[in-house]
Design goal:
Blueprint (H helix, E strand, L loop, with lengths): L1 H13 L2 H21 L4 H31 L4 H26 L4 H8 L1 H70 L4 H19 L5 E2 H19 L4 E7 L6 E2 L5 H11 L8 E8 L3 E9 L6 H6 L2 H14 L4 E7 L3 E9 L2
Parallel strand pairs: 2-4
Antiparallel strand pairs: 1-3, 4-5, 5-7, 6-7
Length: about 350
């Protein structure tokens, strides 16, 4: 967290115009001052540096504010290069003329200014520094665009995850309320207990599932409540098992990731058309890895495709969530046989 915050602060600093413009001119000014101050008085070196910076600023900001927006960004590359060279050709002699009049009382300095070799060096320096401002502009814009893309991807992923979770929760609530309604019609003594279990589960979904990750322990407790509710609804004859191998400690996991599997299994594994139906669940927990296995029975007369289509929304949602939250960190295997249906999810938690 500290490293991420530091990285954010550094990025925000280096992409602020005031910062990199100031840094750019400090570096240019230091280089010019060192060049002109060699063997010259300090005040003369400072004056020469100031004059150079004025004309360089004219060229650089003409480049940044006019040439780049109107030509380079519109992919008029040859026109841009030609105008940049022309601008340097105009600014360079203006700088030399200014130097000539500043040193009106110094014939030696004036002769150095009008020397052709020095004028050529002035032009090359002007063109080089203006070109470096173009590279700096391109680099900072690229960094800003990359950052915007990252922010947009994060926002899109979060919105999609919220949408996927909103599809899961009402679906589960709808099924549970249907079960509860059936028991209340029968005036079953199990109804109050189901209400308590449902209340605990709704509290978890409403108040504790808003984060990207939740403690695995809470998710396991949620699964246990779900299974207890199903056992109450199915009765003592239901063959439901839930085994946990390993130690559930401080592992973190995306919330409500396993529920679509359970809903699908109970919908098809324990029906009136199946004699001795079953749902078997295994959760194998390691420090940075989880394996979730669930297997349920199937009625002999149910076509294989029917099982695949039913519960399709929930299973598609969970696969989509896995792709968003755990890219290249999971392996999901579905196995369909004439008498059973099983799912095995291997998930890396790092």
């Amino acid at each position: 967290m500290v490293e991420h915050s530091l990285r954010e602060s550094v990025y925000n600093l280096i992409t602020k115009r005031a910062f990199y413009h100031t840094l750019f001119w400090l570096c240019i000014g230091a280089g010019i001052y060192y060049l002109y101050n060699e063997g010259s008085p300090v005040d003369q070196g400072a004056l020469l540096t100031g004059i150079n910076l004025v004309f360089l600023a004219l060229l650089v900001y003409f480049n940044l504010l006019y040439l780049i927006p109107n030509y380079l960004t519109k992919k008029k590359f040859l026109t841009y290069i030609g105008l940049l060279v022309l601008s340097a050709l105009i600014i360079s002699p203006l700088r030399d003329i200014t130097f000539f009049f500043v040193f009106i009382d110094d014939p030696v300095a004036q002769s150095a200014v009008v020397h052709l070799e020095n004028q050529l060096l002035t032009f090359v320096g002007m063109l080089g520094i203006s070109s470096s401002s173009t590279l700096l502009k391109i680099t900072t814009e690229w960094l800003r665009d990359q950052r915007n893309v990252q922010v947009l991807e994060t926002q899109t992923m979060q919105s999609e995850l919220n949408f996927l979770k909103s599809q899961i929760n009402p679906h589960f609530l709808f099924n549970t309320l249907n079960n509860l309604y059936a028991l209340t019609l029968k005036k079953s003594e199990k109804a109050p207990e189901i209400v308590v279990k449902l209340s605990e589960m709704m509290r978890y979904m409403l108040y504790e599932c808003n984060e990207r990750n939740v403690p695995l322990e809470k998710e396991v407790n949620y699964l246990k409540n779900y299974l207890d509710l199903e056992k109450l609804r199915q009765g003592d004859d239901a063959r439901i098992s839930f085994q946990i191998h390993g130690e559930v400690t401080n592992q973190q996991i995306a919330p409500l990731l396993f529920i679509p599997f359970l809903e699908n299994s109970f919908k098809h594994g324990l029906t009136n058309t199946i004699h001795e139906g079953y749902v078997n669940i295994l959760l194998d927990v390691e420090e940075d890895h989880v394996r979730f296995e669930i297997e349920n029975s199937k009625p002999e007369t149910l076509p294989a495709e029917t099982h695949k289509k039913s519960g399709c929304i929930g299973l598609k949602n969970v696969r989509r969530r896995l792709n968003l939250l755990y890219p290249d960190q999971y392996d999901l295997i579905l196995k369909d046989t004439p008498r059973s249906y099983s799912i095995a999810l291997d998930l890396d938690l790092y």
